[in-house]
Amino acid sequence: MGRTADRRSSSRGTRRPAAARGSARTGRGQARRSGTRSPTARVSWGRRLGIAFALLVVGASVVFASQALSPTGPADGPAGSGGQSSAPTRSPTTLPLAPLLLLPPTTLTTEPTTSLNGRFVEQLPRDGSYRLRIYLNGELLRDRRLPRRDEFTIDDVALAEGRNSFTLAVAGPAGESLHSAPIEIELDSTAPQISLLSPSGGQTVYAPATALRGTSEPGATLRVTNQATSQTASLVVADDGSFEIVIDLLNGFNELLLDARDAAGNEAHARLTVERREGAPSVRLRLSRTSLDAAALPTTIWLEAEVSDASGAPIDGAEVVFSLSPPGLPTTTYIATTLGGVARWPSVRISDDAQQGQGLATVMVTLLDGETLTASEFFTIE
Q: For a Cys staple, 123 with which of 34, 58, 85, 358, CB 3.0–4.6 Å?
C-alpha cells in the first residue's frame, strides 16, 4: 500500500492544500476585477498573435509562388459559354490570327445580297481595340467591331454582278492579320436570251413535225410545249449556245411556247405559231421570158424547174424532161437532173421561122420512188 501511494504521488505531482488553491483563485478574481492580468496571461495572448501573423505570411507566400509558376501563354481548353474560347487573350504586340470564312450553302445566286459565316480561331478582347474587316475582290468592303461570339454571321453583304471573292481579316494594335482563305459567290441576275433561227413565225410546214433551231445561254435548260398537242420536249443548250429540238405538229395552227432556265434560276420565254398543212411533192416551171418580139428573132431563153417534197424541202436526183413548142415550129426536148432541187435548160434557141402566136413549155419530173410530177407555162410571140 505504501508503494502504491508513492506512485500516485509521483505521477500527479505534489497537490497544493485546499487553502492554497482557494487563495490563488481569490487572487485571480481580484486581479480581473482590478483590470490587471497576471504575467502568465499576458504571455499567452502574445504567443497567439505571433502564430496568427506567421500563418498569414506563409499563406501569402504560397499564393505568390503559385502565380509565379503558372504559364503566361494561351491555355488549351474547350470554348466557354456564349461561344467564347477559353484561351487567354493574345498579346497586343503580336498580329492576330486570320479568322476562318466558311463556305456558303450555294455559290451561285440571283439575290443581290448574301450572308457570310465565319469563326475566330483565338479569343480577342471586345473592347474596341480589334476590328473585323471584310474584303471584296481585294478591296475593303466593311470595317466593324468584332462580333460578340467567336462563331458569327454577317448579313446583308452586297454582291456585284458576276464573281465576288470574299476574305476576312482582323486588325489590332499590332496591325492587320493575314487574310482568310477566299470564297467565291457568283451573282447572275440576267435572264437567258432565246434567239430562234427556224422556223420563222407564221411559217407553213407540211411535215408532221418540225425542228426548232436557235441559240440561248450555254448550259440552260430549254423546254418547248405545243399547246395544240400538250406535248413537251426539253434539252440542255450546248456549250456553243446552239440548240435543235423536234416537236410534233397537228394540222392547222400550232402555238409553241419556249422556256429557258439557267443554272442560277433566271427564266426567259418566247412564243411561236406554226401552221401545218397537208402537202405533196410539187414542181414549178419558170421561163426567162414569156413574151417575145417576132422582129427580134432569132433569140434564146432558158427554162427552170424547181422540185420540192411534201414539206417544201428540195429534192435532189430527180429526172426532169423539158419540152418547148414555139408556134409554127416543132417541139424540142431537153433532159436534166435536179441539184439542190433545181434543174435548168439554158440557152434554148427560137429561130426566126417561128410564127406569131402562143407557144407552150412543159416539164415532167420523175422522183426516186417513181412518182411523176408535171407543170406547164405559156409564152407568146408578137
A: 85
Asked if the domains at 82-187 and 282-381 fall in one CATH topology, the answer is: yes
Domain ranges of the chain: 82-187, 195-276, 282-381
pLDDT at 44: 57
For residue 133, which of 83, 167, 89, 184 has the smallest C-alpha distance?
Answer: 167
Specify the 3-state DSSP secondary structure of 182: coil
Q: CA-CA distance, 76 to 74, in Å (whole number)?
A: 7
In order of 139, 211, 249, 312, 367, the CA distances from 280 in angstroms are 68, 19, 17, 9, 12
Instruction: Note the pLDDT of residue 322.
Output: 97
Q: What's the CATH architecture for 195-276?
A: Sandwich (2.60)
CA distances 320 to 245, 280, 285, 290, 323, Å, are 35, 18, 11, 20, 10
Q: Is 204 left (phi over 0), alpha (psi -120 to 50) or beta?
A: beta
C-alpha to C-alpha distances, 186 to 57, 92, 193, 314, nearest whole angstrom: 69, 37, 19, 48
Q: How does pLDDT run across 186-218, given as a tens digit for each residue? A: 999 899 999 999 888 778 887 788 899 999 999
Q: Hey, is 38 helix, strand or coil?
A: coil
In 3D, which of 334, 323, 338, 339 has the Cα closest to residue 379?
323
* Kind of pairing between the strands at 183-187 and 162-172: antiparallel
